[in-house]
Amino acid sequence: MKKVIVVGGGLAGLISAYSLARKNVEVILVEKKQYPFHRVCGEYISNETIPFLKSLDLFPAQFHPPHITQLQLTSVSGREATIELDLGGFGISRFAFDHFIYQKCVDAGVKCYENTEVESIRFENEQFAVKTKDLTWIADVVIGSFGKRSKLDVHLQRGFVKKRSPYVGVKYHIRTEHPAHRISLHNFKDGYCGISNVEEGKSTLCYLTHRNNVKRHGNLPEMERTVLFRNPYLKKIFTESEFLWERPEVINEISFATKAPVENHVLMCGDAAGMITPLCGNGMAIAIHASKILSECVSDFCYERISRQQMETTYQQQWNHHFAKRLWAGRQIQQLFGSEWTSNLAVDMARYAKPLAHVLVKSTHGQPF
Ligand SMILES: Cc1cc2nc3c(=O)[nH]c(=O)nc-3n(C[C@H](O)[C@H](O)[C@H](O)COP(=O)(O)OP(=O)(O)OC[C@H]3O[C@@H](n4cnc5c(N)ncnc54)[C@H](O)[C@@H]3O)c2cc1C
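Above: inputs. Below: predicted complex with flavin-adenine dinucleotide.
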């Protein structure tokens, strides 16, 4: 029987590993951190994922995730519009959701290595050697689900790492009066901030901004006071909510550059294959959908129904078919955000040209799968 190693245990890696284990494929999952842990993420998951999650018994119903049906948009200066979402989504923290799927993986027989960082992946004579500081595994297939940016991207000499990326992501969990059915997207100069609810009545407050915005003001609290507070909605949230952590989760160097879904025979999944801009609220749906497509291709290869070449070509074609346009649309729409006049334009569109606003939202979302 062929052996599969999944490098990186975010949603893409966990769901690929779980799906393959359910097909009786031997899988090892390697994750650098230890579950449960927090990640920078808005924690709004598109409902397009629900049929697939339910089919694998992975829908986290026991957490009672709030159902989100409405988008509220505010501009840098605080002009507001709301639109009803066609598909909508649900809210659950990554702390709870990833840990829940990790436990499902363990139960399904995935061999999980936490606190373990993969340092190199080499392909030779139809097999991979996957190395950590202390271990070396030999495998027939490697799934690269190591997220938006990893040391492995440098090791694999992936083109996008040569360019620095200016985006910084910041996340808090807070308690505030935010309507459960709503996701809000508040603009500020050179950034945008999402807020929506997750389990246990908590809300996730998560923003993306330019590195220079932080540099200009010296630190995050000062930037928040000087820049984010100009939007009255954000000022109210920041000054009237209970912040549940001492300091936020922060990540740098977030890149939306085009990447290849297969590199050096490694099958990339989730953000490692390409990341959609966060304002679309669709990165997790894409990671989950790509895991479904990938696990089908990999299991066909493991059971010798297709060759390696067919596995790689089919996955690449399917990935481009389902996601390439959505990532492109996300990059274009992101340009409407973070400046005074374009964010006003986006709000006016949502107010007075609702059909056009719906087309834009749809262009970044997929169909239920
Ligand atoms: C500011 C912001 C807000 C967002 N908001 C939303 C939202 O509301 N809704 C949505 O759907 N999406 C959102 N996203 C996108 C979403 O978070 C990602 O698309 C999603 O997490 C991708 O999952 P993944 O499994 O590909 O990567 P990740 O979740 O990043 O997982 C990658 C894993 O690989 C591990 N890893 C890395 N290198 C190694 C190594 N060498 N060895 C072992 N392990 C390794 C990491 O520790 C990590 O656990 C947001 C993103 C940002 C930046």
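Residues 308-334 form the longest helix (27 residues).
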